């Protein structure tokens, strides 16, 4: 658990799944680049219960309210994948996304990963670079081109 002043990172609970999916929906709709795709494919908002039960999903709370979450998943190559990084739009630009990245990087390192990978939206390139990721390629996703990033741990 990471605690910074009134901000805490902790593992998500199964009972919080629907609230986290609502947060993901708000965050996705808050980004004009994602809005149309999400409205066309509302089923894209899904946080697998198995990820929560396996201890892969972490949320950030500010003053007791959940304001963001992310998942750090094991990869077949022994490294980790940062997945589902979302912060409530009312709390954007306050360092909470970076806090989640740092928390997940620490979890990945503790689990033996040498690197943390992420597929990012092109509009998030600056954020991931500021968090220490380097772009290593691109990949076609169901909603367009995604940027492949890697951060050594």
Structural overview:
By secondary structure, the protein is an alpha+beta fold. It is globular. Strand 5, helix 4 (96-110) and strand 6 form a beta-alpha-beta unit. The two termini are 19 Å apart. The chain has one domain: Aminopeptidase. It is built from five helices and eight strands; from the N terminus they run E-E-H-H-H-E-E-E-H-E-H-E-E.
Q: What name is given to the CATH topology? A: Aminopeptidase
The tally of domains stands at: 1
Query: How does the major sheet shape up?
Result: 8 strands, mixed
Q: Output the helix-strand order.
A: EEHHHEEEHEHEE
Helical fraction: 25-40%
Averaged pLDDT: 91
Instruction: Tell me the distance between the termini.
Output: 19 Å
**Which spans have pLDDT < 50 for at least 5 consecutive residues?**
none
CATH superfamily: Gcn5-related N-acetyltransferase (GNAT)
Summarize the structure.
Helix content is 31%, strand content 36%.
List the defining traits of the structure above:
single chain; 153 residues; alpha+beta; Aminopeptidase; eight-stranded mixed beta sheet; 5 helices; 31% helix
Describe the secondary structure blueprint for this structure:
Blueprint: E1 2-4, E2 7-11, H1 17-29, H2 32-40, H3 49-53, E3 57-62, E4 65-74, E5 80-87, H4 96-110, E6 115-120, H5 125-130, E7 134-141, E8 144-152
Parallel strand pairs: 5-6
Antiparallel strand pairs: 1-2, 2-3, 3-4, 4-5, 6-8, 7-8
């Amino acid at each position: 658990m990471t605690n910074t002043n009134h901000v805490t990172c902790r593992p998500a609970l199964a009972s919080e799944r629907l609230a986290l999916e609502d947060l993901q929906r708000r965050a996705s709709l808050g980004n004009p680049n994602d809005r149309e795709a999400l409205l066309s494919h509302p089923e894209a908002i899904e946080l697998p219960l198995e990820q929560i039960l396996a201890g892969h999903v972490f949320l950030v709370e500010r003053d007791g309210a959940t304001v963001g979450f992310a998942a750090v998943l094991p990869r077949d190559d022994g490294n980790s994948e940062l997945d589902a990084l979302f912060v409530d739009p009312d709390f954007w630009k306050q360092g909470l996304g970076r806090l989640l990245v740092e928390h997940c990087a620490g979890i990945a390192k503790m689990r033996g990963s040498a690197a943390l990978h992420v597929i990012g939206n092109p509009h998030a390139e600056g954020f991931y670079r500021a968090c220490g990721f380097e772009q290593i390629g691109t990949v076609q996703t169901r909603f367009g081109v995604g940027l492949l990033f890697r951060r050594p741990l």
